[in-house]
């Protein structure tokens, strides 16, 4: 039997979370190896690109979250077989990565530098991505991003939009998504109520 191991941070979010939800939804057993931030710092240089997630298939390590999402999406029937729908799914996942890249550098900041950088993002790039993603949801029919059903794109959007709305990001107003892309708030609610997602979080408790 193929063995799977996901190494990621010990929180319910980020680049590792859609992978966890998808594997769980398909009943695929995997080792959910979670690291605290101090553990990551200690082990960082041992990871191929000094970053997580790392996904191991039969002991062979693979990096790059969207590549892993596609692979796991295929295993768990959450990735479109149709090439055009797969392209739509990929576009959403890559746009979310770009948004993450904009936010990433602010995590090393503090005080006034952090405030200015986050406020600039909240007035600039974040709304650009939110509006663009809402357009992609409409292109998919308004309910799901691709394939007229839940795919990895929906799981990744759900995780990211929930995070942006959480109020946990200093200087990013919790109602920013509602202001610029209310369709994404409804989408987050829809995905959060999907039986597979509900079952995943019920199992986490
Ligand atoms: N392109 C990579 C980016 C991976 C990445 O930047 N991961 C973050 C966590 S979500 C990380 O490990 N950051 C720690 C660091 O850069 O020191 C992917 O999509 O997997």
Question: How far is the first residue's CA from the last residue's CA?
Answer: 28 Å
* Helicity range: 55-70%
Tally of DSSP β-strands: 4
* Biggest sheet details: 4 strands, mixed
Morphology:
globular
Continuous helix count: 10
User: Which radius of gyration do the C-alpha atoms yield?
Assistant: 17 Å
Structural class comes to alpha+beta
Q: Which small compounds were modeled alongside the protein?
A: glutathione
User: Low-confidence segments, ≥5 residues, pLDDT <50?
Assistant: none
In the sheet with the most strands, the strands line up as 2-1-3-4
- Rounded mean pLDDT is 98
Q: SSE order in H/E notation?
A: EHEHEEHHHHHHHH
Strand-residue proportion:
5-15%
Oligomer state equals: single chain
Structure characterization notes:
The protein has 205 residues and is α+β, with helices and mostly antiparallel strands. The chain contains 10 helices and 4 strands, in the order βαβαββαααααααα. Strands 2-1-3-4 form a 4-stranded mixed sheet. A hairpin with a 2-residue loop joins strand 3 and strand 4 (60-62). The longest helix is centred in the middle third of the chain and has 21 residues, at 83-103. It is globular and about 50 Å long. It starts with a strand and ends with a helix. The relative contact order is 0.13. The structure holds glutathione (GSH).
């Amino acid at each position: 039997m193929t063995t799977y191991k996901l190494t990621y941070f010990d929180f319910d979010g980020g680049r590792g979370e859609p992978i966890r939800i998808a594997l769980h939804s398909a009943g695929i057993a995997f080792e959910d190896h979670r690291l605290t931030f101090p553990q990551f710092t200690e082990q960082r240089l041992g990871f191929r690109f000094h970053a997580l997630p790392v996904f191991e298939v039969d002991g062979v390590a693979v990096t790059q979250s969207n590549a892993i999402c596609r692979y796991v999406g295929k295993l768990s029937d959450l990735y479109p077989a149709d090439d055009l729908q797969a392209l739509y799914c990929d576009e959403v996942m890559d746009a979310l990565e770009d948004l993450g890249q904009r936010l990433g550098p602010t995590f090393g900041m503090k005080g006034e530098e952090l405030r200015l950088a986050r406020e600039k993002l909240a007035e600039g790039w974040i709304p650009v991505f939110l509006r663009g993603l809402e357009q992609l949801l409409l292109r998919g029919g308004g309910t799901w991003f691709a394939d007229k059903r839940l795919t990895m794109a929906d799981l990744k959007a759900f995780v990211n939009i929930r995070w942006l709305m959480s109020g946990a990001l200093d200087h990013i107003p919790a109602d920013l998504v509602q202001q610029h892309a209310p369709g994404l708030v409804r989408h987050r609610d829809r995905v959060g109520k999907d039986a597979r997602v509900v079952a995943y979080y019920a199992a986490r408790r």
